[in-house]
Write a structure and sequence with these properties.
Chain lengths: ~725, ~60
């Protein structure tokens, strides 16, 4: 095999002044020590002008004199230092999130500045009103407050105004509508009152309300930003590259992002295809389990379509890259996915449901207050002032914080338990789940193969087979090598594509591969009749014959987690695209009664719809491309981090690592969080029940409004902190 | 009460200085890595001096 060059020029940016810039995602940076080690190690390289670690996002930014270094040098240097790194390209979604969170932080800064200064002006007015303040002085302070508050609200209120406008334009009401109305009316009334030399204005209340709400918004945003950053790093560190032909039979390893339709790539045995395309040369078997769930291999020859995620087993293939949506399988999946996504948007978030109830009640109360006072003989001016005071006091300060604060705390706790959230409202949907559907391949099982009967095999056979297996890229050979723990490959071993590996030990031939290749058909047939769903690898050493049974192992804690789910009264079901014996065996060992094999993506959706109609809240846990539509169709969905891109993007939650435990942990945290969200909403309602009569009776002063607002907000925030712990006899998933 | 003519603009001016300092620090990326910044404060020695404490964002 010829040596390949690594071409990372796709990721390098020209930042002017003869400098080039690259961002690397780095694995394992988690302390201050790593930070300075990496920075010192990289700065020591000649011509490097900037090496700065971002410990929050686990990334390194590098700048160097253009042309002086190859980015591959940095990756090698980091590998010497003990860190795995890979160039990183900020995804559009992440860039947008970053921009949004900076904007919110700017708004928050402006609002905080204005609140503090308006408060500084308000306190003298409040104390002056009860002592000897002259009305000219009061007016002066009120005008100053207006001067600060009006531009500040115009700037810092943008996130709320925009969102309220969007909602109203589509005929909906969200929490931002009453917020916008409340803030604008409070400002308008205060301005009129200032002109009329009145005693009370509410500039402080309006701007303080925005400050508290912006805190909630920013927390919400930073939670999503963190998830995106981690997910982005994991995607980068997977280091998906392809071997591309450049010119006369020369090849170069390039990142997938730099591959265009029409390019020709080389797919070696043991490599996973990173692109969609058509085979133009070569013959091999491919494992499409990540795409279809089917664990038996398919034949690939000239004209066969290959999808990203397919594993090449035996021969070398040349693949012409096609545009992503050309394949028939993919377009079918895309169509199902679109339908499912449209259906999903019908879910109404708890916060929006609350505001739908809340907005009319508040607005009617304010209106009734105005009319009531007029009927009782008050002037229109006084009546309207009281009405606006009702709107200010009920303004959903606590309500606006009730849900985002809980979401932020809960997502932080889930993050520690190995679960990343893709969408904020996933927590509420996850809490309702009473039926979980698992995909088998890659979800209940681990992606790697494992030798099942290693214990029955003599030590020397296992060792020899392992040494031989190291010379092959075949995934089953990989399993044999891992089982044996062999480190040194057998000298002079050669691989016969599609057959197996052969070598010589002491003049006697050793072979590992197909049963026909090793002359072990009879032994293989015996094993196959006992255990029909395992794949077989045969071994021969002279007259010694042996058969290895190889299959995907279940995740280590799958059994325990299934029973944990059952304990929580959650029904468990397996829907798999794999063959019946394989699914049956897995279902039996996990104690799952409900299972179906050979299911197509459309069948999965039909089953989910059927369950939904009978009132179940279904969670789909799956990883394959064929699971993407059903992930979108389910009430809530989860994917392991090793899953296909499309599934990961569709799933509401992504879990890390080998164990299945995060599934249960996520449900527990979500249930606790939903409980706290409801509790927070009731706290906010309770606060309103106390405060509204005071407002209606017309005795609310700006001081009371300010105290009530900050008091209720603090209460809700403190309550949200409880989402970090799951009670009920401790977390069983630990 | 004439002192207010000096005190009020002074107070607001100081507030504005604080706000612009905040906006400047935000713009130069000083809030991009809060975790790292916390550790840098107690790091023994700074790496090579030509590394400016600003980070170019992408």
């Amino acid at each position: 095999m010829q040596a390949t060059t690594r071409d990372f020029s796709h990721y390098v940016k020209d930042v002017g002044a003869g400098l080039a810039h690259i961002d690397l995602a780095v694995e394992g940076v988690n302390c201050a020590g790593c930070m300075s080690k990496i920075e010192r190690g990289l700065s020591a390289m000649p011509d490097v002008t900037l090496a700065r670690v971002n410990l929050t996002d686990r990334r390194v930014a590098l700048e160097w004199k253009q042309g002086a270094l190859n980015p591959a040098n940095f990756i090698d240097r980091l590998a010497e230092l003990g860190y795995k790194a890979y160039p990183f390209e900020t995804a559009n979604a992440e860039a947008a999130e970053n921009e949004q969170s900076r904007f919110l932080l700017r708004c928050l800064g402006v609002a905080t500045f204005a609140t503090m200064n308006v408060m500084m002006l308000s306190v003298p007015v409040w104390s002056g009103n009860v002592s000897d303040m002259l009305s000219e002085q009061r007016d002066f302070f009120h005008w100053l407050s207006a001067l600060i508050a009006l531009p500040a609200v115009a700037y810092a209120g943008q996130p709320f105004f925009r969102s309220a406008y969007r909602a109203l334009r589509t005929g909906n009401v969200n929490m931002d509508v009453p917020i916008t109305i409340g803030v604008l009316l409070a400002l308008g009334m205060s301005l009129v009152e200032t002109v009329n030399h009145a005693e009370h204005t509410y500039f402080d209340a309006a701007i303080m309300l925005l400050t508290f709400l912006l805190v909630g918004r920013y927390l919400d945003q930073s939670m999503r930003r963190r998830t995106r950053a981690v997910a982005g790093n994991l995607a980068a560190l997977k280091a998906e590259t392809a071997t591309k032909f450049v010119g006369n039979g020369e090849i170069a390893t390039v990142p997938v992002a730099a591959i265009d339709p029409g390019d020709i790539v080389l797919l070696r045995p043991g490599e996973r295809s990173a692109v969609d395309g058509t085979v133009i040369e070569g013959r091999s078997e491919i494992d499409q389990s990540l795409i279809t769930g089917e664990t038996t291999y398919a034949t690939a020859e000239s004209g066969t379509a290959v999808y990203a995620g397919s594993l090449n087993i035996s021969g070398t293939l040349r693949v012409r890259v096609s545009a992503a949506s050309e394949g028939t399988l993919l377009s079918e999946i895309t169509r199902l996915l679109d339908n499912a996504l449209q259906a999903r948007s019908r879910y109404i978030r708890l916060a929006d449901r609350a505001s739908r109830l809340y907005a009319p009640v508040v607005h009617v109360t304010a209106l009734v207050t105005v009319l009531g006072w007029v009927l009782m003989g008050a002037s229109w001016h006084d009546a309207i002032i009281t009405g606006v005071a009702v709107l200010i006091i009920t303004c959903p300060c606590a309500l606006g914080l009730a849900i985002p604060t809980v979401q932020t705390v809960a997502s932080g706790a889930m993050f520690k338990a190995g679960v990343l959230l893709n969408s904020g409202d996933a927590i509420e949907r996850l809490a309702d789940v009473d039926h979980v559907i698992f995909d088998k391949t890659g979800t209940l099982t681990l992606p790697d193969l494992e030798v099942v009967n290693a214990a029955d095999i003599p030590e020397f056979v296992l060792g020899l087979a392992g040494q031989l297996a190291l010379s092959s890229h075949h995934p089953a050979a990989g399993a044999v090598a891992r089982a044996s723990g062999a480190m040194t490959p057998l000298m002079g071993a050669t691989e016969e594509p599609g057959q197996g590996v052969r070598g010589q030990v002491g003049g006697i031939e050793v072979r590992l591969g197909r049963s026909s290749f090793c002359g072990a058909e009879q032994l293989a047939a015996e094993h196959a009749s006992v255990d029909p769903d395992a794949s077989l690898v045969a071994f021969s050493f002279g007259e010694v014959k042996q058969v290895f049974l190889v299959r995907q192992a279940l995740r280590p804690d799958a059994c325990a987690i299934i029973s944990e789910l059952k304990q929580r009264n959650i029904a468990v079901e397996i829907l798999s695209g794999d063959r019946e014996p394989a699914v049956q065996a897995a279902a039996r060992s996990l104690g799952v009664e409900e299972w179906r094999a050979g299911v197509t993506p459309a069948d999965k959706i039909t089953r989910i719809e059927e369950l939904k109609r009978s009132g179940f809240k279904v969670m789909m846990v799956g990883d394959g491309l064929n699971d993407a539509p059903s992930l979108a169709a389910a009430h809530v969905s989860m994917s392991p981090i090793a899953s296909a891109h499309l599934s990961q993007a569709t799933a509401d939650l992504v879990f890390l690592g080998k164990p299945l435990a995060p599934v249960v942990a996520a449900i527990d945290f979500a249930r606790k969080a939903l409980h706290l969200m409801r509790q927070n909403l009731w706290l906010a309602v309770g606060y309103n029940i106390l405060a509204v009569p005071i407002a209606i009776s017309g005795v609310v002063t700006p001081l009371i409004a300010a105290a009530a607002m900050s008091g209720s907000s603090m209460l809700v925030m403190l309550n949200a902190l409880r989402a970090r712990q799951i009670s009920k006899g401790g977390p069983a998933w630990k | 009460m004439e002192v207010m003519v000096i005190l009020v603009p002074l107070a607001l001016g100081l507030g504005l200085v604080g706000l612009s300092a905040f906006l400047w620090s935000l713009k130069t990326g000083q809030y991009d890595d809060l975790e790292g910044a916390a550790w840098r404060a107690i790091a023994d020695d700074e790496p090579a001096p030509e590394n400016e404490p600003t980070e170019r964002t992408t």
